[in-house]
Amino acid sequence: MERITAFITGLIIAVMAVFNTELGKATTNEVSITINQITGIVALTAVLLLFRKNKTVNPERKKAPWYLWGGGLFGLIVITTNYFSITGSGATVAMASAVFGQCLMGIIYDITGLMGMEKRRISKLKAVGTVISFLGIMVMFAFSKAAISPLYALIGAAGGAITMIQMVYNSIFASYKGAFFSARQNVISGLIGIVLYSFLFNTDATINGWKAVPGIPVSILIGGGILACFVVVLANTIIPRIPAADSSVLMSSGQVMMAAVIDAALYSKLETALVAGSVLMIIGLILSRQAE
């Protein structure tokens, strides 16, 4: 069940990234992030209050180290990298790059046991799968009709790696406070960070971005924030239960598949090269999964 949930989480991540990007285009990236954080705080607080007697939603909370309270700061970086990567290269290439970054970071966790994760041996088959996934990205860049800068692949991969770091970080905090409380704290810390940044370094653009908000459909306004809540809660639940590389592979497969659908449906960017690259990505991910 955890593995199915990981795959579904990947589907949600791809849709969430598009919601965030569209909101950022209509306002600014900073306004988009701020609205997402506010939406998440309201939604998660409502859940915590409605189910305050439910031990699954509100388990007994333990004292957590101070350095685990700032997970939302990772999220600011992830949303920003998604914004630039999707607007510069389309959803498929952006998600494929992010997927590669997630898988690579998952392997690093398994090799090193970083942040208290269990160390696991990386087989030759998993290494081959990772190389094939990388070749899939190269196919997208080499044969795509559109001129796509490799810089967007680096940005996307960095965002994917940071996504994996954030998920592990939040899951550790959730072991002290519960998945829903951890998710809410994640968006609270993110809100504090983005508000400070917006008004200290991008004041005029932020004010103009907020002026555009009344004309934006409600689905675009709150879609990314609501989906982000699902992603954080689901990730907090599944990551401690299965290997880091395994969860990254399953979430990545969902992201790549959904991104291809999004590109075809919304951006009319689905090309033979993108399809071929996506197939290679998925083959690589399946090989990595079989290596477990």
Automatic annotation (TrEMBL):
One of its GO terms (cellular component) is plasma membrane. The chain crosses the membrane at residues 33-52, 64-86, 92-115, 127-144, 150-169, 181-200, 212-235, 273-291. The keyword Transmembrane helix applies. It comes from the Bacteria. The keyword Transmembrane applies. InterPro entries: YdcZ. Keywords: Membrane, Transmembrane, Transmembrane helix. PANTHER family: INNER MEMBRANE PROTEIN YDCZ (PTHR34821). This is DMT family transporter. The lineage of its organism: Bacteria, Pseudomonadati, Spirochaetota, Spirochaetia, Spirochaetales.
